[in-house]
Amino acid sequence: MGTLLLVLALPLVASGPAAQTLNGADAEETRERLQQLEKDIARITAAQAKREKQRSSLQAELRRSETALGKLQERQQATRSAIRDNQKEILGLTERQSRLQSAADSQREAVAAEIRQAYKSGGNNQLKLLLSEEDPQRLARMLAYYRYILKARSELLDEFQDTLVSLGALKNDLREKETRLKEQRASLAEQQQALEAQRQERKTLLAQIDASLDSDAANLAAREQDREQLESLLEEIDAALAQLIPEDDVEPFSAARGSMSWPVEGRISNRFGRPRNQGKMRWQGVRMKAEAGSTVTAIHHGRVVYADWLRGSGLLLVLDHGEGYLSLYAHNESLLREVGDWVKAGAPISTVGDSGGQSEAGLYFEIRKDGKPTDPQQWCRG
């Protein structure tokens, strides 16, 4: 501001005829203009400071919103999984119910036939016939046969009764499962509503943040600040990694160069080293277009050293692969692993999203060696 005021004040002290033509009124008018300019500059500076404070507050709100969005997505996935398991159990119970019902129908017909047969033959007449038999051997055989008939009928009745009891218990279990399924579906609907509300809140926050960034210079400064924050984070991670003990019997990361699979199926929309937004900054990784919710997998065996929201990167997960190699997965919708978890190549670690203020879903992916970015296309095939 001092330089600007000095330049504006030069006409007041200029030498020569032009300076001599300034009368008192002109000088007073110029002084008033300078005073007004000082006020305007102070007002603009205060407004910029206020907007920066608002941006910081909005970024904090965005972090909270996107973190909550990720948690809701995790809950929704867990509920969908529980619904699938419940549906499988209901299907199994329904099939078992059908088999039991068929058995009960067959047993009911057999019991009815036995009852009709017993009624026709008459139980008292059979007893009279047995008691009138004088031949002991014949009597013994008839008694044994009669006991066999009674035992068979008793076992048939017991089996029929057991089937009916099992069928009743199964129907109760089935009703409980169906009730639970209704509750799970209702919970899923509520979670979906909460998810949509959270997404709308995020959309509003992004619009407010975009409105506060009123120039390309401000955008560039914000990006540089985000990059500095990420670099600082990676330096802290590198320092912490020096104290970790790697697992044995694992193929070194360097040996897998050119043979690793990409972390997600999708088209590369921004390549390593290309200019970023027609500016001086360049892409230090690749951005891959993919559908929201798609599974992101680890490119190699490693340990989770960061799993949280970071400004500019959104929900970020970082894997340490040893030998000074790190892989970064940014703008996720949800994180499936926690710090300290060991993962194998191909293991799910997150889901694709648009966190961090992105306009569309996709994965930003980096590979670093000793903190320096390297081209992922030299490491991943396809």
From TrEMBL:
Tell me the keywords, alphabetical order: Coiled coil, Signal
Asked if the record carries the keyword DNA damage, the reply is: no
The protein in question is named: Membrane-bound metallopeptidase
Keyword Transport in the entry? The reply is no
Domain M23ase beta-sheet core as annotated: residue spans: 283-376
InterPro entries (alphabetical): Cell_wall_metabolism_enzyme (IPR050570), Dup_hybrid_motif (IPR011055), M23ase_b-sheet_dom (IPR016047)
Molecular function in Gene Ontology: metalloendopeptidase activity
List the SUPFAM superfamilies hit by this protein, alphabetically: Duplicated hybrid motif (SSF51261)
Q: Which Pfam families does this one have?
A: Peptidase_M23
Q: Give the highest taxon in the source lineage.
A: Bacteria
Gene3D superfamilies, alphabetized: 6.10.250.3150, Glucose Permease (Domain IIA) (2.70.70.10)
Coiled-coil portions: 27-75, 167-243
Give the residue range of the signal peptide.
Answer: 1-19
